[in-house]
Amino acid sequence: MKHPVPKVLALALVSAFAHAESAPESSEQVQDMSDPLAVYTQGGFGVSDKGLNLKVGQTYDTGNPDTMAMNIIEVKGIAGEQLGWSGSSKRDDSIDSLRFRNFSVDTTNGRGAQLDMNYNVEKEQLDTSYSFIQALPKWGALQLYPLAGAGARITNGQVDTTVDTESGTYPIDKSIGYTIPGVYGVVGMYSKLAITDKIWVNYNPMWLTAIAGSDDFMESAFGQGNSEVFANEVSLSYQITPRFNVRYFANWTQEQEFKEGDQRIEVNYQF
């Protein structure tokens, strides 16, 4: 079954392409693709346990010589029935999710800001957050990038009600349209450990917790009975050329074992 994309995300996608049309030609300078705060025009694809993922990123002129910015659009879970390997009965050939990010960084102080929008197609649910990221001084081969922000959830809500008939009453689910059931906070970090000049490891933990909203949101915002979630992401990357790399990602939460989380391999190219 295919689900509509909410207007707010559609407008974001249109905005991204509009910026791409007006962006200047890319610089000859190659950006460090291992830096979580690096900004560059890019394209990539990957294969995950849920299907094929596609990604495109476009830099644009902010009008300020001290800042750099880009938009990134990702489509996830394409052709999951044929290409996925998770064994989940929910895998199908419809896409699983869409993600839009607007990212900017001040090159004078290493401070970034990110608008992150994730739309779950199956649940018809949009999580959108805004956060600030700060690059800390390197400590040998290790560098940390703490992050903090807040977000809101938009979902196509359902309510339980009853219908009266001559033979009695029976329960039904009634759509109430898109609503904002609650808001949440997010605290975490990106980290980078350089193994060699071409190999590095990232560990990106994130803690999300419900702040305010409906009773159901406050009790189960991140899964049945979970008002908070601790999410882990680990990646191992190899830089094949200055513009081309291959990366392995694993994502899981405190409710999952490592092998139960999402796994994917992707390749990325810097234009």
Number of domains: 1
> How much is the radius of gyration in Å?
20 Å
- Quaternary: single chain
Helical run tally: 3
Strand-residue proportion: over 45%
What's the CATH class, please? Mainly Beta
Structural class: mainly beta
Would you write up a description of this structure?
- The protein has a single domain (7-270), classed as Porin (Beta Barrel).
- Helices cover 10% and strands 58% of the residues.
- It has three helices and 13 strands.
- Strands 1, 2, 3, 4, 5, 6, 7, 8, 9, 10, 11, 12 and 13 form a 13-stranded antiparallel β-sheet that branches.
- The chain is globular, with a radius of gyration of 20 Å.
- Residues 16-27 have low confidence and may be disordered.
Please give a handful of descriptors for the protein shown.
single chain; mainly beta; Porin; 13-stranded antiparallel sheet; 13 strands; signal
Lay out the secondary structure.
Layout: H1 7-22, E1 42-48, E2 51-60, E3 67-78, H2 80-83, E4 97-106, E5 111-120, E6 125-134, E7 142-165, E8 168-194, E9 199-203, E10 206-213, H3 215-220, E11 228-241, E12 244-253, E13 262-270
Antiparallel strand pairs: 1-2, 1-13, 2-3, 3-4, 4-5, 5-6, 6-7, 7-8, 8-9, 8-10, 9-11, 10-11, 11-12, 12-13
